[in-house]
């Protein structure tokens, strides 16, 4: 299974459109920190292809771990509605965007995402997150 993330970068945060496999309709949207040269704790991660794995922690319960991010560790996909307050380089699914780096209904976006990805992982399917260069659309893309 491939998850495709197309991003739009702003000074205060990054917005993304997440699709799965050949589906052209967004599965959900994402928020991240702004791009600041891949600096730990203050920047989103670089575009590229990453393996996703299941991970459990007391704080986030079950979530996704983005593997082998250059010069970064513990990059996760977990719920959050404000990148600057709740993320340290991780990716948060959301259903709608607010101002750049913010969104709404992250837990509602997260649950179906991990259900689908975990089912594929349990079926021994490799799961890749493919982060593409930025998108250029200037339209309202909320679900």
Overall residue-averaged pLDDT value? 93
Largest sheet: number of strands, sense, barrel closure? 8 strands, mixed
Shape: globular
Radius of gyration using CA atoms only: 14 Å
Structural class: alpha+beta
What is the CA-CA span between the terminal residues? 22 Å
Strand line-up across the major sheet = 6-5-4-10-1-2-3-7
Beta-strand content estimate = 35-45%
Supply the number of helical segments.
Answer: 2
- How many domains would you count in the coordinates? 1
The unreliable regions are: none
Total beta-strand segments: 10
Taken in chain order, the helices and strands follow as EEEEEEHEEEHE
Give helix % range. 10-25%
Features:
two-stranded antiparallel ribbon; 15% helix; single chain; 143 residues; alpha+beta; globular; eight-stranded mixed sheet
């Amino acid at each position: 299974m491939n998850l495709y993330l197309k991003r739009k970068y702003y000074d205060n945060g990054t917005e993304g459109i997440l699709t799965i496999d050949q589906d052209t309709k967004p599965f959900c949207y994402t928020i991240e920190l702004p791009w600041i040269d891949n600096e730990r704790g203050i920047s989103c991660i670089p575009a590229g292809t990453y393996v996703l794995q299941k991970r459990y922690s007391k704080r986030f319960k079950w979530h996704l771990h983005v593997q082998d991010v250059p010069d970064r560790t513990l990059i996760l996909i977990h719920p959050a509605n404000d990148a600057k307050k709740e993320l340290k380089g991780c990716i948060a699914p959301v259903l709608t965007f607010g101002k750049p780096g913010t969104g709404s209904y992250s837990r509602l976006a997260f649950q179906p995402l991990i259900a689908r990805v975990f089912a594929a992982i349990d079926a021994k399917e490799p799961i890749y997150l493919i982060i593409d260069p930025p998108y250029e659309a200037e339209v309202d893309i909320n679900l």
